[in-house]
Structures are given as structure tokens and as C-alpha cells.
Design goal:
alpha/beta, Rossmann fold, 5-stranded parallel sheet, 3-stranded antiparallel sheet, 8 strands, 32% helix, globular
Length: 209
Amino acid sequence: MAQIICRDLAVGYNGIAAATGINFKIEKGDYLCVIGENGSGKSTLIKTLLNLLKPVSGSLEFGDGLTQNSIGYLPQNAVFQNDFPASVKEIVLSGFLGKKKVNAFYSRKEKEEVSRILDLLGIKELENESFSKLSGGQVQRVMLARALCACGGLLVLDEPVTGLDPDAMDEMYSSVEKLNREQNISVIMVSHDMDAVNKYAKQILKIGR
């Protein structure tokens, strides 16, 4: 079975649909870009995938070992307060919290996985740096690493390059593409950047008119 099958889905708030007639299927290793005008319902769809909102109608099925609790999520401008007193390693480790019992310690395996992910994303040298001292591009790649700790095979990214300079944008796109190509991680990315959409997407879903 596919990781996600969406059939005639309507999404919205309080039973009022913001977008209707949404159909797509995500197989392992897919890269789906979601496009549409502001206010068309793209972020509402993402919140529905994450079980933060209930579908208004239609069906949303999960399979191939994926659950709504095992989706790695990177929201738009996902930053902590500027003076947050933590190292990069501590921030990334916090991605495991959703899988742990209350007050459980991080395991050796989890710490080793963080080191592997940081190395994979090319930011291992930032491991002990203060999170509050990072540039915008570094912050987003650290938050991507954090999302990978929660990831069970699917990453959901809501406009992950918003506010980044061109070099940082390229690094972010390259990191996501590498994860998709080399690690076979499925990607759903909301984007207004049509150049990136045309370059990276294996599927394109347009929300709204």
C-alpha cells in the first residue's frame, strides 16, 4: 500500500471547507510539491495531514508503516526564540520527544542518530554551537535535522526557504533533494518557487484555481 492515499478530500476549519476535491497518492521516495495562491488551503491541507485538523469530507489513508505521528514536519520559519539557551545537538535531539515517555532520557542510539543526521546534512561542525548564534540558513538546516528525528519515512515542509538568501535557499533545496534521492525519504513541500518545483518535484498538486 502507498504511504498516503488521498481521495476527494475537503479540508477546512469547523466543518467549513477551504479546499475541496484534493486527490493524490504518495509512494515511498516520492517528491510532491503543493502549489497555489495564498489562502487557497495549502497550509490547511498540511495541518490535516498532521492530524491537527480533521478532514471536512473525503478520505485520507496511511499505509506502508507510516502514521500521522511519524511524519517529520518543518513549518515555515520554524525558529525558537533568539536567546534560546541550547546547543545545536540539544535542539536536534528534541525531535525525538514525540516518541518518548515523559522525562525519559535520550538513548545512546538516539545520540548516534543525531550525529549521523548532522553529518548527512553537512552541519556536523555545528553540533556544539549555540543555536541562538546561527544564521537563518543554518537554523533551517538544523530544524530539518530535528524533523528527521521524528521522521518515519515522510518529510512535510511548509515553504522551508522563506526569508533565506539565495545561497541558503540552494543549500536547503540540495539537502532535501539528497534526502529524497539517497535516503529514499518521501517529501511533501509547499512552495511558491516554481523554478524549484519544476526542478525537484516528481508530482505537483495545485490547490485552488
